[in-house]
Design goal:
The complex is a heterodimer. Chain A is of the alpha/beta class. Chain A has helices at about 20-30, 55-60, 85-95, 115-125, 150-155, 195-205, 235-240, and strands at about 35-40, 40-45, 60-70, 105, 135, 165-170, 170-175, 210-215, 245-250, 260, 265-270, 300-310, 315-320. Chain B has two domains: about 1-35; about 40-115, Cupredoxins -  blue copper proteins (Immunoglobulin-like, Sandwich), CATH 2.60.40.420. The chains are: A alpha/beta, B alpha/beta.
Amino acid sequence: MPKKNKDEILHDHNNDGVDRRGFLKCMAWAGTGALCVMEGGILKSYSLSRLGEISAKEMAGELSFVQISDSHMGFNKPANPDVAGTLKAAVDKINGLSRAPEFMLHTGDISHLSKPEEFDTVDQILKSASAKDVFFVPGEHDVLNDDGKSYLERYGKKAKGAGWYSFDKKGVHFIGLVNVMNLKAGGLGSLGHEQLEWMEDDVKHLKSSTPIVVFAHIPLWSVYPEWGWGTDDSAQALAYLKKFGSVTVLNGHIHQIMQKVEGNVTFHTAASTAFPQPQPGKAASPGPMKVPAEQLKSVLGITDVNYVQGRNALAVVDSTLA
Amino acid sequence: MIRKSVCIAGLFAIVMIATLLLFAALPGSSAKTPQPAGAEVKVDNFSFGPATLTVAVGTTVTWTNRDDIPHTIVSTDKVFKSKVLDTDEKFSFTFSKAGTYPYFCSIHPKMTGSVVVQ
């Protein structure tokens, strides 16, 4: 494989050390397993097979975590009759990462029908992951029966309201949001007034140099409103994050990888560990998409996220299960 | 004596025949006025079919989920609410009052429909 040259900054219009064109080119690589690292304003990209070349200095102070999503435990239709098996394969993939993640984020639809045994099975399978701490946010499939009470009992003991909360890891501020409650007829995802007020207060006193990671189930940007792939009041939430130099938004719900960079905000949706869904508008509805059995693992996946202290953006790398 | 019992028997027979004829003439037992059938809504591909269903007062509407994903039937005005319906599960509601009843799937709120009761 030819050695990749450093991309130098050619157009630094915003004077913030980020070359948009170079960054976007790098992000396009991410789907194929490339690692993009910002170093002093210069983008360096490495193919996954050459991760060993990243210097120890860069590794120091590094934060590494994994995002998984949409395990839909309990789903058993033709699109994937063995969602437990593919979740286990995802855990194997996580355990095979060269740098063990410190923790995991699960961006919701943990279960398929909010049944206790479904949550139990997921908890059991995740116990064998190298990362022992898992932070959850609910998907609409997790709050079906009792307004999300059983979800909260399991995963939201320290959370506020319907399950929102924040925490810090190595100087990065993580915000878990819930946008699957009290959905209105004909509407999209919804954060609600109470949660937005909490969020405004939560980030108010943070320094603008604090890297922010927001995670929620339904995309916080308008992916495809016709299929409900968006959040009605996410603009307000993003407005509270305008002052920050680095914001990464991690979502699930759409069962496919999508990325978008808008100013200082990088949006990313993860693949499901259970079944894929069609690209926007490419099918009659956003339901489970059947692919030949031997191809299933190639459309499911995990996301590895790395942050090096002092760098600007987080490196988000998707990899499929096969 | 005999004449009286014959008379009574005859009267009884007439009443019986009259009653039978009366029952025969009632709607429901005749082919002339059809029974209001139960109405169906098929839930498939993240949509309700038909999206708008018009029925007579007193009709029981049955929703059947044919999709491979669970859905719910929730009235926007809180008139009715189903439990979560997995594939092939059904929900029925009898509309006893005229009016327009918009509803949606609370899991996938872009799915909307309505029942018009006349």
